[in-house]
């Protein structure tokens, strides 16, 4: 919010209207920051429409925002399956933002339907935190699915894994064990868990690994690599 508020303070263009933000179930929590950050920092109220599963987290986000001082009307929730047709055409909507093509799937002719500009957040990276009371077996699977799931074609993925220090070694060992069982193959291979790396990408990976070693970082290598 500090970054966006700084930008809003120096931006001469006046932002008017309410922001309509649409978030699907299959997004990282960082999407809330990408979508809501600019609007809230600019002092624009947000109507947040969320799919059923992520509505619980959106409610918690709203409660936390109000607890730290946000006005109660700053974020208005529309959870679950909602018909957005009338809202999209409402004159009070200043701009619309969504994660990926969520709106486009429901409204193929979105540009001709709405009056306000549409901002789509198509790509994002998210972190993962593993606490010492976590199920480390499940956490290992979650890392693999989040980083390489769906043949890595999703526009969002895991970038950083932060592990509580007292379970770090155990977690890394379990993660390596899980990685050694991952099936690697071409992107079109249905039985493959992870797409195989192209030669050009392999060179870049090896370069990054060597650079990490030079600066003294510990590099964990899977037994199959």
From TrEMBL:
Q: Which residues form the Aldehyde dehydrogenase domain?
A: 35-220
**What's the superkingdom here?**
Eukaryota
Q: Which InterPro entries match?
A: Ald_DH/histidinol_DH (IPR016161), Ald_DH_C (IPR016163), Ald_DH_N (IPR016162), Aldehyde_DH_dom (IPR015590)
Q: Which Gene3D superfamilies match?
A: Aldehyde Dehydrogenase, Chain A, domain 1 (3.40.605.10), Aldehyde Dehydrogenase, Chain A, domain 2 (3.40.309.10)
Q: Name one GO molecular function term.
A: oxidoreductase activity, acting on the aldehyde or oxo group of donors, NAD or NADP as acceptor
One family name in Pfam for this protein? Aldedh
Membrane-crossing residues? Answer: none
Entry protein name: Aldehyde dehydrogenase domain-containing protein
Which lineage do the record's taxonomy fields give for this organism?
A: Eukaryota, Metazoa, Ecdysozoa, Arthropoda, Hexapoda
């Amino acid at each position: 919010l500090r970054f966006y508020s700084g930008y809003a303070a120096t931006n001469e263009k006046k932002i008017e209207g309410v922001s309509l933000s649409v978030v699907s179930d299959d997004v990282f929590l960082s999407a809330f920051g990408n979508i809501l950050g600019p609007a809230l920092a600019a002092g624009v109220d947000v109507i947040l429409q969320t799919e059923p599963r992520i509505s619980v987290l959106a409610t918690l986000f709203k409660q936390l925002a109000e607890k730290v001082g946000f006005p109660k009307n700053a974020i208005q929730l529309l959870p679950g399956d909602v018909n957005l047709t009338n809202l999209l055409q409402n004159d009070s909507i200043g701009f619309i933002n969504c994660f990926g093509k969520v709106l486009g799937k429901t409204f193929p002719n979105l540009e001709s339907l709405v009056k306000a500009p549409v901002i789509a957040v198509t790509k994002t990276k998210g972190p993962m935190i593993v606490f010492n009371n976590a199920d480390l077996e499940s956490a290992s699977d979650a890392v693999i699915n989040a980083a390489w799931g769906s043949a890595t074609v999703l526009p969002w993925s895991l970038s950083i894994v932060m592990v509580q220090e007292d379970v770090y070694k155990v977690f890394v060992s379990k993660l390596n064990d899980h990685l050694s069982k991952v099936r690697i193959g071409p992107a079109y291979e249905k039985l493959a868990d992870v797409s195989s790396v192209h030669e050009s990408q392999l060179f870049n990976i090896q370069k990054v690994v060597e650079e990490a070693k030079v600066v003294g970082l510990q590099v964990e290598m899977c037994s199959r690599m």
